[in-house]
Each structure stands twice: as C-alpha cells, then as structure tokens.
Amino acid sequence: MKKKPAFLTLSGRTILEWVNPVADEQLELAADELNRLVLTRFTGRKEPDQTVDVVFEVKADAKGFSVKAAENMLKFTAPTALEIIYAVYDFAEEYLGYTFFEPGVDTLETFGGKIQLKTTGYLIKKRVPDLKVRGFVQEFPFSEDNYVIGDWMVKNKLNYVETWMKYYDHIDQDMIDFYRVRGITIESGHHNFSYLIPAEKYAAEHPEFFAERNGARIKPSSSKTPNALMLSEQLCTTNPALREELVKNLIEYGKKHPEVTNVGLIPNDGFGWCECEECSKFYDKNRKGELYSLAEHVYLAGEIYHDLIMYVCRRLKEEGCTLNVTLCAYINYCYPTENMYLEKGMTVEMANYWRCINHKIDDPDCPVNSRYAKDIEAWTKVKRGGNVVIYEYFMGVNFYISLPMVHTDKIFDEVAFYKKTGVDGIITQFHLPHWSVYGINYYTMANAMYGKKRPAVLKKLWQALFNDDAAEGKRFYAKLDKLVHSAGKCHIPYPYSLFSRTELKDYKAMKRCAEKLCAKLPRDEFRKDLVLWMEYLVRFKTFFDDYNAGKAGIKELKAFQKWAQNKCSKRPVLRMGSFNSYTNKMIQQLEEGKKWVHFGLDWEDAYVIKHHNGILSKDA
Ligand SMILES: [Zn+2]
Ligand SMILES: [Zn+2]
Question: Which residues fall within 8 angstroms of residue 269, CB to CB, at 6 or more apart?
C-alpha cells in the first residue's frame, strides 16, 4: 500500500508556538514578522486550535539559510540571526503568497484558504547570496521614509546604505537602531572632501589646503552648499598638513559616531584637481581621460587620488583606527593606478557613470560598458582583502527624471558577470517618489543578488503587479524596452539620446497599452501610475520634437511643468525636485538664448553632441 504523503497544513486555525524563544533583537523581529505574516495571510480565522511549533536555529557552520517543515513544525536554520529574518521573508514570498515589491506594502495574492507544505526535504535549501554587499545609495536626508525603506531593504535582503556625511549628521538613535536590527550597514561618506575640510573652518586660515587653479588658490564653496553636484572643487591633496588634518578628522569622526564602521573618503563631485607644483607631479598633462567616463577634457587624477587614499589608510591603521574606508572610481579616476591595492578594510565603489543601458555591462560590443567592465576587472585584480562594489544607476542613470529603463532582464546576467569576476556587491541610487517607474529594477536587482532565478523572479513580479493580467503586463514592459532599444545599439539615457532617436507614435502606443491595462482594473493605483508615466513621456517627447522644430519654447515648457506639478507630484512616478531643477535649467537656457541640449553645462553638452555624432549616431 502506498503511504500517503505527509504535509504540514497552515490554515486559519494555525497558531505558532515558539520552541526556543531567545532574547535576541533579530530573532524577535523574525518571530514577530512570521507571526504577523501568517496571521494576515489567514485573516478572519476563528478559534485557532492547531499548533505549529516554530524553531529558529542559529548554527554558525550552517551553509546559508534553510527552511524545513515537519509534521507539526517549521524549522528555520541559518548561520546568523539576520539570515533567519531573511528566511522568514523568503518563506513568506515563496509559500505564503506575499511579494515585497512596494515599500510599506505587503502585496498578498490570496487571503484565507490553506497551505500544505511538504514535510520531506527542504522548502528553502541552503540559500546563500551571490554578492555579499547589496544596497542603496541614499542621496537625500534621513526622514520618516527611512523606516519604510529599511523595512523594504531587509525584506529584500539588502544590507548596505551609502550616504552623505551631511545626511548622516541628522540621523537619530531610533533609526540607527532600526537599521542595525535589520542588519543594514550605513556608510557615511559620499562626496565628502568638503565635509571633512569645510571651507567655513579652513578657507581663511589655510587657503593652501584647497586646490590651486590657474595660478591661484580657489575660494571654496561652503560645505553647506545644498546642491553640491559637479562642484569641481578639490583639495591640495599633496599638502602634508592637509593630509594629516584629514586623518585627524576621520579619527575624530569615528570617535563621535562609534556605531559607524564604514566611512568614505571621496573627492567632491566633478573635476577641479589641484595644479600646484607638488600636485602637478602626479599628472601627465598629455594624458587625458577617455570618452566612456566623460573625462576626455581633463587629465587623469587616479595617481594623485590613490596616493592620498593609500596614505590616509596607512595612517589610520598606525593610529589604531579601525574604520573601513571607501574610495570611489569615477570619471577621471576610474581604474587602479600602479601601486594601488585594496587592502583589508578598503572598498572601492566603481561608478558606472553614464553607462549604456541597451547593452549589458560586460558586452564587448558596447564601446562604453566594455571599458567599465575592463576597469571593474582591473579592480578585482588588486584586491588584497578589500572589496569591489559597483555603484549603479538603476534609477534611469541620469538625473532622476523618469526616462524609461527596464533593467529586469539584464541584471541577472550582470550579477553573474560580477560574481564570476570577483566583485563583492552592487549598490544603486534610488528614490521613493519614482517607485512605480524604477521599483521593478530595485526588486529584481535585490533578488538577482541572492541567487534567485530569473524566470521565477520575473513571473512573481508580473503576477504581483498585474494579477490576472500578468501576461499583458509583461508584454507592456517588453514593448517599452523595445522602444528604448529602438533608439540605437547604445543608449545613455539622458533626454537627447532617447528623444532624438525615437518616434512620438511609439510613446503614444505605449500610453494606449497602459490605458488598456488600466481599463481592466481601474482602481489599481500601479496601473494608473503607468498611464501617468506614459503621458509624461508623451508630453516630454512632444516638447522635444516641437522645440527642435522651432515650434515650442518657454511657454510650452512652463505648461509642461505645471502639468507635472498638478499630476505627478501626488504619485510615485516622478521625483519633482529633480524634474523642476532640470526643467528650470532648461528655461534658463532658453531665456539666455542658448540651445537646450542637456543641463546647460558646456563640457557636458559637448559630450552629448559628441555621443550623438559618434557612438550614439544612427550608423554606429
Ligand atoms: Zn596641490
Ligand atoms: Zn552600448
């Protein structure tokens, strides 16, 4: 006689009993969350009478996290308490019908019913991450939103935030605790030369700490400058007293913030390296940067930056300071120079700035990405116990203005490339106010980094977003991706690259697709957001075409701004601050009688034009 297979049944009658409750903040979170998720799943249950024992087993030598069911038992095993939390959330996604796509919302497929779990073999087996550093770059101040963000991060097994020191100044103890319990390391750093050597404190007494340009010391901007992007003001990094001041200030910073383990030592954004006699010894003025990293117009600063980094890291060690130090690889300092090594405690964040989104990062056919891939490989070769982390731009690469980027497929191959190459992690810039546009990239990135398989992840995503219309939702994104690829083999997603090479009719077709999806479930907010987003793109593209045909100008641009303010500011489709800053800069250019190409920076516009005539040209 055949034996009936054994199942553990979870139903509306289930109550969880904790076999081994321990006073550990992370295991308590795991227990609370499992209880909450089971309770919510079987909401409306009456007279619970079925007891299921839950065992959390932290075993240092366990390989990854696992979940097993027995007749009346659920057993979670992992090497750390944090991974027990991960096991709970993955169990909820894979067996209870949840999807943790939207921050602050646990999307649940079905309520009630019952679930039968097999009691032979694993439900989740020895799950380990493909990349150990998984996270976000936070380019905005801490606020209540961070509770939602931290919650989303742990549900999706992200463990790292890189943020500006000036933002870390305003984090409070509750939030520090909230992130700690969720196993998320906060790196305080980002572009921070001006934070560590603030002009207010040093400029008057030590003008020699700041870069010399065109024969004179610069007058540095205040470290409180709100928008310090592309500031292009550096320090005189060879000055011995300045170097020691950096060391001293980092040590003091570590003492003031004992919970901080990782700090950045990263130049101010942009260029503007010192040209004094000592610093000039580090440059060969005939050796400029290259097109792929937007550094053709400046000489290379890798040698001088890396010399500073190696000095500061060595001195910190000598002083007994245990802070981990992050440097960045970016624009004109993209790859390791001679004698540059990533020792233990050092991390390079490699910024794939203005990468092409129509090719994968390691595609040899892409003149931009293949160069970044080469730099990334070079960094992994100089690891001596340190880390290589990729700094990504899955928020549309340029400017947070919600131009389409569907990276849900390529990310899986990119993670495989990174893993094979010896890269330790990926962090990406992001914002909450555009989650309906780029959330798909964040969700798939998080899953891809933890060894989940592409078909399963994507199937779950389309199912959670579109329910019965999952196939149509999937087609919507495929079509949108096709539109983006119709721009050309390569595409760097600033407006000029996209709008100069695509057709208005295709955006209108996308809008009709979104409307069709929306008509099938009109109360669904996400579908409404897609309609709004497509309308935004139609309007942006229309303005681009009309402007270039001499038929639209300031008046039409202001009308577009007004429309966006009215429609988009209430929904997560557009980060209004970035949109307003970008379009105000457009208006300013038009008022000055300048041709609008991009953000009005001459050197940047020159790259846009150069791309247009070269790698992004029709016949490229
Ligand atoms: Zn100098
Ligand atoms: Zn390309």
Answer: 191, 228, 229, 230, 231, 232
Q: What is the pLDDT of residues 269-287, one digit of tens each?
A: 889 999 999 999 999 888 9
Ligand 1 centroid to residue 239 C-alpha, Å: 6
- Tell me, in angstroms, the distance from the centre of ligand 2 to residue 616's CA: 9
Pick the ligand that lies closest to the CA of residue 367: 2
**How distant is the alpha carbon of residue 376 from its chain centre?**
17
| Per-residue pLDDT tens over the stretch 175-232 | 999 999 999 999 999 999 999 999 999 999 999 999 999 999 999 988 877 666 667 8
Cα(248) to ligand 1 centroid in Å equals 19
Any domain includes 192: yes
Is the overall model pTM greater than 0.90, yes or no? yes
Whole-angstrom Cα distance, residue 323 to residue 246? 13
The verdict on 417 and 476 lying in the same domain is no
179 and 224 together in one domain:
yes
How remote is the CA of residue 585 from the centroid of ligand 1, in Å?
33
Residue found by looking up tokens 């010391």 in the block = 217
**Residue 96, domain CATH:** 3.30.379
Q: Is residue 392's pLDDT more than 60?
A: yes
How many domains in the chain?
A: 3
Rounded to the nearest whole angstrom, what is the distance from the C-alpha of residue 370 to the centroid of ligand 2? 8
210/154 same-domain check: yes
Rounded Cα distance between 287 and 298, Å, is 9
- Band of pLDDT at residue 42, cut at 50, 70 and 90: confident
Residue 70 three-state SS:
strand
Report if residue 191 sits inside a domain.
yes
Compute, in angstroms, the gap from residue 492 CA to the centroid of ligand 2: 8
* Closest ligand to Cα 211: 1
Distance 397 CA to ligand 2 centre (A): 13
Distance, in Å, from the CA atom of 533 to the CA atom of 546, rounded to the nearest integer, reads 20
Residue 293 Cα, ligand 2 centroid: separation in angstroms? 13
Ligand 2 center from residue 92 Cα (angstroms):
38
Residues of the domain holding 231: 133-452
Is position 19 within any domain?
yes
